[in-house]
Structure formats: C-alpha cells, structure tokens
C-alpha cells in the first residue's frame, strides 16, 4: 500500500483536475511509503472526561469481540479528586465513550479521567487534571448540566480553563446534547455545555466520529 500526506495528494489532484502534468521528480521516498499506514489515532492520546466508573473487563470483552484484544494495553485510568466511586447508573455512558474511541482510533492511547460531580467547579477540576497530565492531546466530553445549576462566574471560569487547553495545543470536543432546549431532567431550561472558548460543540451522536487522527500528516479534529 502506498500513501502520502494529504497535502501532497490534494496538490496532485489539483494538477490532474486542471490537466497539468505531474512533476517528473515526484518523490517516492518520504512522504511516500510502501508500508501500511499507521492505525487511525496513532500518536494521539485521547482523554475521556467521565463522571461515572466502569468495569475494565467489559472493555476487554468488547475488544476481544471485535478482534482487537491486545489494544486493551492502550487503556488507562486516572481518578480525579478521589474518583467517581462505585459504578453507577451512567456506567453505560462511560463504556460507550471508551468503546467508540478505541474502535474508531485503534492507534490512540486512551486515558479515562473519572471524578465526582458536585455541581459548579466539577468540570474545572476534571479539565485541569487532563491539561496538567501532560500526555493528553484530545479531550472528549459528553457530559453536561443545566443552566439553572451554573452561574456567570462558573461559566467564565470554565472559559478560562479551556483557553488554557487551547494554549497547550489540546483539542477539546464536547457533546451538544440530544434534547435541544430541554435539559437532562426534562425541564425547559437549556443544557449548559462546559465552556465556550476553544471548544468545538457537536451533536452527541456525531461526537463519536470526531478527533480521529488519520495519519501523522493529517488529523481530523472537527466535523
């Protein structure tokens, strides 16, 4: 299999589209290679923000099912502020996040950051832990809280934290929710997504396809 950086492919397509000759000295060394390209996600470390816990063996079973059992070694976990505690009602959400990223980006390292949700300040603690870890290149968050649970100061604080993530070169993606203007518990007040600056909000069901590194030359981080 032969592959090249996306930029070079686009240049060649542009030449062909305009009926222009290809360069006679088209390089066959770098960036071209006769080797198979690296697996999607190679070189990336995805941090998953979670307010519940999971059973690691469930992830191992899933990876075995899809024929990627050895990939389990790429999964690790960090407890923030004592961790999320025992597995709760949202364990399936945690497993969905893990399984989606590990199946779509099999080359990535995945770190699950779990911690307690205690209202305002909870997201800041989680984001700061992920930023300060030093390994995370992409943060994925699918959690939210309601507008009547936050304050202007809380939102501004989140904005500052996410600005720090952007300054550190970390891409942050957060689910935009599936209920529109209806909050999670059914009330008619808006679901608050954590932060605004440097954050890409996408529909939760679409988030699973985001932040997947295709090759060392090109990385999709937005929809």
**Radius of gyration, taken over Cα atoms and rounded to an integer in Å:** 20 Å
On the 0-100 scale, what is the average pLDDT?
A: 77
Side-by-side strand order of the widest sheet: 2-3-1-4-6-8
**Oligomerization:** single chain
Overall, the morphology is globular
Helix content bin? 25-40%
Could you tell me the number of beta strands? 10
What's the CATH C level of the largest domain?
Answer: Alpha Beta
Distance between the termini: 27 Å
- In CATH terms, what is the fold-level topology of the largest domain? Rossmann fold
Superfamily (CATH H level) name of the largest domain? Peptidase S8/S53 domain
What is the H/E order?
HEHEHEHEEHEEEHEE
What's the number of domains?
2
Supply the helix-strand structural class: alpha/beta
Tell me what the CATH architecture of the largest domain is: 3-Layer(aba) Sandwich
Alpha plus pi helix count? 6
Low-confidence stretches: 1-10, 200-223
Q: In this structure, how is the largest beta sheet organized?
A: 6 strands, parallel
Q: What portion of the residues fall into strands of 2 or more residues?
A: 15-25%
């Amino acid at each position: 299999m032969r592959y090249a950086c996306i930029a070079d492919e686009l240049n060649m397509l542009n030449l062909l589209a305009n009926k222009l000759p290809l360069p006679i000295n088209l390089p066959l060394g770098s960036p071209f290679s006769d080797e198979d390209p690296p697996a999607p996600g190679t070189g990336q470390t995805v941090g998953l923000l979670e307010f519940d816990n999971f059973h690691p063996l469930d992830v191992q079973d899933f990876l075995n099912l899809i024929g990627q059992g050895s990939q389990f070694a790429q999964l690790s976990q960090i407890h923030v502020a004592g961790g999320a505690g025992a597995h709760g009602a949202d364990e399936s959400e945690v497993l969905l996040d893990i399984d989606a990223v590990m199946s779509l980006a099999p080359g990535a390292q995945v770190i699950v950051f779990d911690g307690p949700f205690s209202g305002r300040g909870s997201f800041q603690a989680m984001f700061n832990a992920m930023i300060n870890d030093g390994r995370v290149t992409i943060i994925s968050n699918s959690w939210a809280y309601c507008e009547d649970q936050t304050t202007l100061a809380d939102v501004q604080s989140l904005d500052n934290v996410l600005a720090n993530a952007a300054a550190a070169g970390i891409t942050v993606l957060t689910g935009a929710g599936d209920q529109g203007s209806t909050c999670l518990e059914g009330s008619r007040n808006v679901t608050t997504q954590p932060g605004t600056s440097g954050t890409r909000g996408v529909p939760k069901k679409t988030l699973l396809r985001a932040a997947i590194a295709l090759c060392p030359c090109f990385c999709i981080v937005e929809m």
